[in-house]
Fold this protein.
Amino acid sequence: MDDRDSWFARRTSRWQDWPAEELLAAKRRLGVTVSVVIPARNEQQTVAGVVGAIRRSLVMRQPLVDELVVIDSDSTDSTAEAAVGAGAKVHRAADIVPAEGTFPGKGEAIWKSLHVTTGDLVVFVDADLTSWGPHFVTGLLGPLLADGDVQLVKGFYTRVWTRSDGSTSTEGGRVTELVARPLISLWWPELADVVQPLAGEWAARRSLMESLPIPVGYGVELATLMDTVAGHGLDAVAQVDLGSRAHRHQANHDLAIMAAELLVVAERRRPAGQPPLAAQLRQFVREDGQARPVLRPVPVTERRPAASVRCQ
């Protein structure tokens, strides 16, 4: 068993492994606080459902969450009003540390959130979820409360989306599969067992987040993963199977911008001139409810120009 295989076994769990009652006891024993941050832009249709479910389950019923905060990224609809009505504290990203200016983007909202929240542990949840549950939060908190060496917890799930004909599929994660996973497999193979490196649901220690540079756009998840491992080692990362997830999908043109941001993030972190460290792509499939890695070779050989080869 190599280091990656042992990491996968040691640092991968399921949300069912982390009951809220046990987490609440651990939280009180450790004397830590928890903030849930929901970055949102024009999500008036879904944000109240996300906020309300977390508030009912993990603020009112089980007081595991101390702060429930929505960072409104220049919404032009009623996102802020919907979030307030559901029980969240709402901050406009542009109003937080105004001396630093403001940028559009998810990473900007996450960076700004660190200036208006106080929790020792911070859980990030997307605002556009339509098939999910408060167990996303408990699952992500579990490894942080159970092991002081864990700095970052990534969620993964079956991504469910509805086709135009009304049928459903577990396909999804186009930017993950077409950009992030190939990049990681070729140049950062030690990270290839992170099932969904771009998952929008993740958690971290505040001390870690305040120590890292944060890209203002969609590169925030990949950058945080890479920088955490670079600074603290692979064992500082854990991942949790959260079950299934559905959300609003974006147009290909918007996904292209996300892909370009990931390429910039990766290029900034790759030593200049470094060749690929591996020539295989590590992908994941679901079998018997479990995520199973599948290795596929990546052709990297290039033939020399045909004109330079004499026919025998």
